[in-house]
């Protein structure tokens, strides 16, 4: 019996080997007939009646291994007519079947949904590109974003491995490294920041309606500017192809905290669409022509409306023009409840302020984008993109309680109203040209402008007495109105030439040179004026000076100014000073010229290497005249950087890759960080440091990945970064505990590991596409940096002294543990005209340092938070779709503590509430 079993096993083994050895191969290239037979990547090839299938690669190529016999191939691509082709396969032979696809006779209604979910918006297409690319990158497309209920780019990138967003800000942290270490591009070209404090633009403002996919590069490549350590986020705009379509979207949404507010009021003035702007009034020191301090009651129900469409037109015999446009408006209300704020806390745990904290806000986003692609012929293509985004935020922040030396009886009251408006305009022209079979030329240029206004921010400080509220003017800035304007223009250019060399017997080239140039020319003008309103008595208790906090216009008016009940001045002085109205200013100029040479070589079928060398010449100049330096000054930073990079890829088999990356980069300080300007946040002030200089960074990555199926991936990555002279935000030694920016030590390093897993858990009915899918990504991070008081003292010439509590510490924003997980059920019926997708998504980050401790105080730490979202989207038929999204279902407490030796002290705490939305769309 044992012999028979052994014999049977050997026979089966030999038979299996024989069959495998006698298999044949079907290969070929799919092309796009509508685009002059250009290669068609990410299309589907299926052997009819079997489970054997493949996707075409980025060059439109495919390959299938089958047993000898006669078959029928089905070629398909979303938005195109499927084609069937017979093929006969013999043992040990390769049959070449090339095929062209076109949209053909598809009707307008047939192609709408398919066109909007094809190409690189698909998860499977992006995974295939990730698998085949030599570079180490991740991407998330429109299809996956829709499934996870993501409405903007900021929330898109935090769904990828190793990336988090700092609560209460727009900061994105990549592998524990914050805003200064990251970069943002659109279609490979840089875009400016809309916030004077930030290097990168607020990714919240980019609606997913305008994107094809978002690419996140965590490993440096010489084609990027060298100001790179954490990662680069590239927003790839929609590049529409196919027949015409038109789509309309509606959404209503509420925040449970906001809708529960009995009296949701915001300051009068700004309109509901976010385009209003208040100017500094005429004669502001002697005439009271300021806007009202009264409030309007709001109904806190938000919503959105959007329209998008596209079409394609033939031009001559070979040409084709594709156009796509979208416009949308969205608004939303928010409220933070159960809040406390304690400001600065000393080492003994005693707070300078002990207040409750109330926050109300109203946000708008108006987006319009137009894209036109002109395919001149199969060798030449030009794209034009223009994007306009206008955002506004109206906030009301209030706190009541103890304020040292101002409200020692716990009867203080602070209110800040702020209206912020930003307008971004991006214009890009890009070209792709095939010069020969060996060489291509790519170019791109952009002109971008951004204008940010904070028109008439108001700040009022009062004391609550038995008789009512009185204005507190112990210090002139305790009551003020503030006007700020930032204007930034930026020109950028990318040029690159690819040349292939060393052609092998199969007709493929083993090597490729890429020679390129990048230029960036940025100019920023910033000015701010604060008008301080000081009453002539402090504080007063007789009833004649009692004010109504909800109608301060009764006190701040022309009559009381004429009666000298209060005076108006700037930091330069009052009406008697000739230059009192001269604003605080800083102007920044940045010029970067960079050239690079990347050499890619495929040593064999498995091993490929890319060696890059980049050189950059950087000049950053800042001029200023500010409250800290009224006479004005300037500073110039020059840097020449030589930046080598190496990427290695080894294909273990057709489904597994092993990758390695190493590079040197740098981190440049920002204009604001080098200008001695005081920027006041609610209960916090920040000051620039002219002595700040660039850091140098060394980066490495090692990654293993496997792609079991077209929509599945498992990857494990180890990474490390060593940073010389890291830059940090720190509390400097001052009476007001101001924050500044310093090169805080000689070194710092980050090390960690990432795991990502996407899988189809159950395929209940492959014919009707009923399946359960899941995904999880986990990141572990360890960071450490030197904290050196002597270094800071010497390099800032004593102007920004620090007394660090510890000699080493973690990087700010570095969470040791990050987790994203999602579970989705997809069901399709009615001959694939109707479907339902339901998703549960969970995000978690562990404790992370917000600011480094000084003067024996512990670090400020943002405590761990986990959030849970539910998304349900259904296509009812060809035209109608519905969606329901519920975010922040767990509604955790957002808590920031100071980790003193005697124990944690909570310094900021609140709840955000649930965000619920109902969505509807109609496709013509």
From TrEMBL:
Family annotation (PANTHER family): PLUG DOMAIN-CONTAINING PROTEIN (PTHR40980), TONB-DEPENDENT RECEPTOR (PTHR40980:SF5)
Keywords recorded for this protein, A-Z: Cell outer membrane, Membrane, Receptor, Signal, TonB box
Pfam families, A to Z: CarbopepD_reg_2, Plug, TonB_dep_Rec_b-barrel
UniProt keyword ATP-binding present: no
Sequence ranges assigned to domain TonB-dependent receptor-like beta-barrel in this UniProt record: 455-889
Every TonB-dependent receptor plug domain range: 137-226
Keyword Membrane: yes
SUPFAM superfamilies: Carboxypeptidase regulatory domain-like, Porins
Family the entry assigns: Belongs to the TonB-dependent receptor family.
UniProt-recorded name of the protein: TonB-dependent receptor
Cleaved signal peptide residues: 1-20
Subcellular location, principal: membrane
Compartments reported by the entry: Cell outer membrane
Species whose genome carries this gene: Flavobacterium ginsengisoli
């Amino acid at each position: 019996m044992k012999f028979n079993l052994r014999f049977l096993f050997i026979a089966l083994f030999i038979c299996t080997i024989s069959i495998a050895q006698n298999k044949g191969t079907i290969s070929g290239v799919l092309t796009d007939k509508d685009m002059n037979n250009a290669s068609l990547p990410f299309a589907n090839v299926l052997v009819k009646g079997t489970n054997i299938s493949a996707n075409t690669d980025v060059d439109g190529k495919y390959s299938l291994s089958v047993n000898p016999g006669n078959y029928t191939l089905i070629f398909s691509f979303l938005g195109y007519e499927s084609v069937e082709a017979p093929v006969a396969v013999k043992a040990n032979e390769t049959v070449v079947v090339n095929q062209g696809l076109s949209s053909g006779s598809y009707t307008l209604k047939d192609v709408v949904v398919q066109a909007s979910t094809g190409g690189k918006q698909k998860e499977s297409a992006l995974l295939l590109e990730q698998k085949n690319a030599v570079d180490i990158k991740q991407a998330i497309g429109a299809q996956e974003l829709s499934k996870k209920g993501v409405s903007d780019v900021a929330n898109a990138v935090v769904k990828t491995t190793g990336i988090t967003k700092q609560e209460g800000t727009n900061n994105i942290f990549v592998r524990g490294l914050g805003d200064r270490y990251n970069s943002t591009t659109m279609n490979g070209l840089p875009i400016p920041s809309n916030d004077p404090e930030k290097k990168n633009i607020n990714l919240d403002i980019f609606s997913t309606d305008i994107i094809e996919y978002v690419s996140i590069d965590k490993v440096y490549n010489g084609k990027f500017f060298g100001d790179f350590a954490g990662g680069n986020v590239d927003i790839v705009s929609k590049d529409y192809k196919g027949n015409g379509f038109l789509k309309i979207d509606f959404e209503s949404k509420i925040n449970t905290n906001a809708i529960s507010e009995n009296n949701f009021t915001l300051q009068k003035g700004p309109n509901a669409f976010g385009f209003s702007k208040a100017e500094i009034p005429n004669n502001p020191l002697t005439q009271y022509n300021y806007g009202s301090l009264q409030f309007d009651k709001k109904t806190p129900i938000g919503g959105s409306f959007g329209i998008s469409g596209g079409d394609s037109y033939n031009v001559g015999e070979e040409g084709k023009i594709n156009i796509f446009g979208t416009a949308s408006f969205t608004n939303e209300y928010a409220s933070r409840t159960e809040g406390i704020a304690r400001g600065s806390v000393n080492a003994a745990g005693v707070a300078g302020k002990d207040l409750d904290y109330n926050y109300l806000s109203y946000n708008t986003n108006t987006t319009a984008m137009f894209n036109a692609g002109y395919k001149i012929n199969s060798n030449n293509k030009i794209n034009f993109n223009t994007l306009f985004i206008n955002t506004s935020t109206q906030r009301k922040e209030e706190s009541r309680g103890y304020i040292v030396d101002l409200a020692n009886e716990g009867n203080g009251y602070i209110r800040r109203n702020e209206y912020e408006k930003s307008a971004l305009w991006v214009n890009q022209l890009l070209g792709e040209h095939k010069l020969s079979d060996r060489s291509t030329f790519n170019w791109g240029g952009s002109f971008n402008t951004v204008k940010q206004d904070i028109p008439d921010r108001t700040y009022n400080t009062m004391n609550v007495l038995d008789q009512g509220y009185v204005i507190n003017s112990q210090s002139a800035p305790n009551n003020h109105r503030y006007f700020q304007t930032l204007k930034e223009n930026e020109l950028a250019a990318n040029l690159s030439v690819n040349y292939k060399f060393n052609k092998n017997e199969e007709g493929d080239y083993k090597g490729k040179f890429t020679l390129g140039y990048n230029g960036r020319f940025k100019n920023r003008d910033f000015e701010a004026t604060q008008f301080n309103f000081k009453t002539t008595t402090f504080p007063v208790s007789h009833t004649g000076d009692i004010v109504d906090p909800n109608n301060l216009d009764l006190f701040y008016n022309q009559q009381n100014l004429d009666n000298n009940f209060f005076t108006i001045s700037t930091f330069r002085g009052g009406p008697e000073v000739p230059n009192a109205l001269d604003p605080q200013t800083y102007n920044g100029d940045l010029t970067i010229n960079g050239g690079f040479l990347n050499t890619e070589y495929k040593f064999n079928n498995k091993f490929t290497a890319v060696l890059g060398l980049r050189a950059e010449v950087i000049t950053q100049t800042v001029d200023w005249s500010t409250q800290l330096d009224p006479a004005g000054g300037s500073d110039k930073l020059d840097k020449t950087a030589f930046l080598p990079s190496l990427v290695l890829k080894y294909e273990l088999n057709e489904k597994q890759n092993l990758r390695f990356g190493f590079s040197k980069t740098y981190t440049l300080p920002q204009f604001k960080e080098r200008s001695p300007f005081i920027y006041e946040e609610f209960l916090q002030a920040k000051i620039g440091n002219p002595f700040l200089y660039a850091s140098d960074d060394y980066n490495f990555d090692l990654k293993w990945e496997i792609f079991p199926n077209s929509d599945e991936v498992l990857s494990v990555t180890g990474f490390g970064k060593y940073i010389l002279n890291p830059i940090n935000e720190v509390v400097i030694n001052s009476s007001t505990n101001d924050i500044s920016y310093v090169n805080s030590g000689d070194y710092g390093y980050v090390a960690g590991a990432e795991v990502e897993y996407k899988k189809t858990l159950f395929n209940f009915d492959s014919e009707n596409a009923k399946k359960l899918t899941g995904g999880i990504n986990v990141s572990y991070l360890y960071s450490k940096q030197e904290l050196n008081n002597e270094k800071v003292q010497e390099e800032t010439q004593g102007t920004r002294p620090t007394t660090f509590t510890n000699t080493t510490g973690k990087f700010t924003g570095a969470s040791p543990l990050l987790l994203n997980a999602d579970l989705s059920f997809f069901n399709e019926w009615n001959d694939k005209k109707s479907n339902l997708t339901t998703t549960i998504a969970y995000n978690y980050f562990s404790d992370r340092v917000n600011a480094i401790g000084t003067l024996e105080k512990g670090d400020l730490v943002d405590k761990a938070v986990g959030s849970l979202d539910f998304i349900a989207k259904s296509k009812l038929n060809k035209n109608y779709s519905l969606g329901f999204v519920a975010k922040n279902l767990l509604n955790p407490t957002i808590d920031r503590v100071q980790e003193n030796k005697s124990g944690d002290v909570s310094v900021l705490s609140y709840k955000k509430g649930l965000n619920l939305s109902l969505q509807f769309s109609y496709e013509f």
